[in-house]
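Encode chain A's predicted structure.
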Amino acid sequence: MKHKLTLSEALTLQEKIVRGIEETENSIINYNSTDKNTSNLFVHLTDLENQLVVIKEAIQTANKKKGKDGKTNNFWIYTLSNLNRRRAFFNLLNPKKDDKKAQVTKKKVEEMRKSVGEDINKIYNKLEIFNTDTKIKVEINESLNLL
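Encoded structure for chain A:
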């Protein structure tokens, strides 16, 4: 049955499905050498995996839509990824305060870290607004009791 969800709700549902897949796989592993029949667990696992594909496709389609700023959600997701990588780099670039040979001073690194942190926060806010405002229609397998 088709359901109308916000992108935020779809992302939460995606996480729930992933957890369900992990739990089902663990159950199969745990019951593999017992008398308990796991064939129904394999059916459930396949249903969850198929639902995950449907959810991911709906999320990806929504992320291709342009926001009020003319950029797609994907653009901001990829930019956020780059900024997080840059922040990790700045955390490794840690010159000593009295290092006269340092080409990038401790003060400069701290300024860049602060600037990247501010940019990350701005993008998180953009993504949160987009994810809350964007509605998608997605087919949900009712037998999985996900909603």
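Residues 2-144 form one domain.
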